[in-house]
Amino acid sequence: MQKAFSHKLLEVACFDAESCLIAERAGADRIEFCSDYSSGGLTPSWDDILSVKKRLKIPLHVIIRPREGDFVYSREDLQTMKRDILFCKEHRINGVVFGILTSDHGIDVPANKELLGLCEGLTCTFHRAIDACSDPEKALREIIALGFHKVLSSGGKSTALEGIDALTRLQKQFGEHITIMPGGGIRSHNVSLIAEETQCLEFHSAALTVDKNAVDPDEVRLLKEHILHV
């Protein structure tokens, strides 16, 4: 049975301050704020985080990712991530987005637990690092046990459409315990199918213009419209 209609929402990944405001005006329900689109998203500067926080009225989640590449982090990386989380907490950011893996493609339970210990009052999303895990179901059970509120996933594939069967299975098995948020290549032309098949309630998209320079407000509006009418 499908959950309450009113709980469906659209999170838009934004890579600069202006895009955050464009997405909000176009109907986004929440912003995931990142820098450096080409690397898949890194933690923005503290000045940019504060600038967006002051101007935004909808919830703001900040990615905590200190460098590009894999999700196996050194102690130095972890210290950087801790500082960024504490900054977000101090300045009342709504949530943070991170994920730490072991070198054998599993969840680094101690390292994630260490960061989660700093996150009281923040909504915590485990990002698409889960798609690099060798055993997604085991990984998701550990993510739930750690206390993450949400997980962003493309079902282990390059895009959520390609991973739709895995996302449907994970939603059916774990959707009562954690919010499973499809992301990866989600656009207005495919979000209805993904929403209908998976029965997920939250969806993640960069909603970029064709030249990938900024959020496309028309695309945000269409995404939101299609999500709400499934």
Give the gist of this structure:
With 230 residues, the protein is an alpha/beta fold.
Describe the structure.
- This protein is 37% helix and 15% strand.
- It is an alpha/beta fold and 230 residues long.
- It has one domain: TIM Barrel (Alpha-Beta Barrel), CATH 3.20.20.380.
- An 8-stranded parallel sheet has the order 7-6-5-4-3-2-1-8.
- The radius of gyration is 16 Å and the shape is globular.
- The two termini are 13 Å apart.
- The relative contact order is 0.15.
- The N terminus is likely disordered.
What would you call the shape?
Answer: globular
List the total number of helices.
8
CATH architecture: Alpha-Beta Barrel
List how many beta strands DSSP finds. Answer: 8
Separation of the first and last Cα atoms: 13 Å
Predict the CATH topology.
Answer: TIM Barrel
Low-confidence stretches: 1-6
Overall tally of domains: 1
Query: Could you state the order of secondary-structure elements as H and E?
Result: EHEHEHEHEHEHEHEH
User: What does the average pLDDT come to?
Assistant: 94
Percentage of residues in DSSP E strands: 5-15%
Q: Bin the helical content.
A: 25-40%
Q: What would you call the structural class?
A: alpha/beta
* CATH class call: Alpha Beta
Q: What can be said about the biggest beta sheet? A: 8 strands, parallel
CATH evolutionary superfamily:
Copper homeostasis (CutC) domain
Round the Cα radius of gyration to an integer and report it: 16 Å
